[in-house]
Fold this sequence. Notes:
- The chain is mainly α.
- The protein folds into two domains: 5-88, 434 Repressor (Amino-terminal Domain), CATH 1.10.260.40; 119-252, no CATH class.
- The chain has twelve helices and two strands, in the order H-H-H-H-H-H-H-H-H-H-E-E-H-H.
- The chain has helices at residues 11-25, 31-38, 45-50, 60-68, 72-86, 90-103, 113-121, 124-134, 141-146, 154-166, 189-213, 233-252; strands at residues 171-172, 178-179.
- Strands 1-2 form a two-stranded antiparallel ribbon.
- Helix 2 packs across helix 4 and helix 4 (60-68) packs across helix 5 (72-86).
- It is globular.
Amino acid sequence: MLKRIEYYADYRQFLRDFYEDRKRHSPGYSFRVFCRTSGIKSPSLFKEVIQGKRNLTKKTIPAFARGLGLTDADASFFTQLVAFNQSTTPEEKQACLERMRGLKRPVKQKTVPLDQYEYYAKWYNPVLREMACILDWRGDFALLARSLDPPISTREARSSVALLVRLGMIAKGPDGRYVQPDRAITTGPEVSSVGVRMLNHHLSLLGAEALSRFAPSHRDISSVVIGVSPRTFPLIKQEIQEFRRRIIRIADEDECPDQVYDVNIQFFPASKKAPNTGRTE
C-alpha cells in the first residue's frame, strides 16, 4: 500500500509501492510507461533500481521525481532519502537525516521513521521518558527541565514531551500524571541505528563529565584493560549483554524510582591487532 513519502526509510520500497499502486489502478501501467513519462531512455532502469541492481544519480533523481508526480517538497524529501540510502558513511547518513527532518511535513498522530531518529538524536529524550513519569511536575516544563542533570531549557523539555506523546512513549493519565503505556514503536533499522550511534556518543560524553560532576558515592565509573583474542571477544560481548538484561530486570522490579541514571557499558579496541605470536588458542 502506497503511503506518504515521510513514512519510508527506503526509497526502493517507496518505488515498489508506487508501482504496485499504479498497476492496481491501471493494469496497463508498466516500467516502460514510467520511464517514458519520466523522460528516461532506458526502459529497464526503474525495474533495476527497485531490484537494487542500480542506484539513482544526480541526473536520474529529478527524472524519477517527475515520473512519480512528486510536489517540490516531496521531491526534495525524495532526494535526501535516496542520498541517505546510498550513503556509505555514518556521517553522511546523519547529515541526510538532519536535512530530512527539516523537510518533514506535520503528520498528526502518526509515527514515521524520522520520529524514531529524532527520539535518539537528543540524549535527554530517553531521560525525560523516565523523569516525566517519576516527577509530579503538573505541566511545569521549567521544573521538568531543571530536574535533569545537566538541566535543559524549558523549550527543549516542551518539545521532548510533545515528541514522546506523539510516539506513544508516554501518555497523560486520568490524574494528570504521565505514564508509560505498553506500546512498542518500531522503524527501519537503518534510521534507528544512526540515531542510536548519536545517543551513545552523547551519553558517553556525559559519562566522562560525570567523573568530575559527581562524588564517588553517587557514581560508579571504572575501567579495565585486558588482552582479548577472537575466541574470547564474543564471550565477553555475551556477558555484557546478559549483564545489561539483568540490570533492566532489576529496574523493572523497582516500584518507586525517584531518579534517572545512565548506564554506559563500553567495550572497544584500544590497540591494533598484533602480528601472529605463534601461540595457539
